[in-house]
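We emphasize that the prediction below concerns an isolated chain of 116 residues; any contacts that depend on oligomerization or on bound cofactors are therefore not represented. The input was used exactly as deposited, without trimming of termini.
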Amino acid sequence: MEFSRADFEDAVSDALDLVPADLTAVMDNVVVLVEDDAPASDPELLGLYEGVPLTERDLSWAAGALPDRITIFRNPTLAICETREDVVDEVAITVVHEIAHHFGIDDERLHELGWD
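Result of the prediction step, given as a token string:
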């Protein structure tokens, strides 16, 4: 399926726009990126949160802290999707999943909530 990098970045941006403003307002020091490929250690990974969840930060955290990173991986996402609508839906799910990690929600709890 053809889905350009620009189209994929637009899908990520659109997914971020769907996140309620009251949640994005409390997201702190986080950047959302798009990469073509997942790490070689997990090539089927759709998204990755790297950072310190809000629930684990203390007063010493902010001293020189780099932004947390949410990375959405284009090629693994395209590999599991059959249509453009599938891509848009999967990107939205992945963005929410990774944002949840920023808020300290782990994979087990996301599974219980139906976000896997």
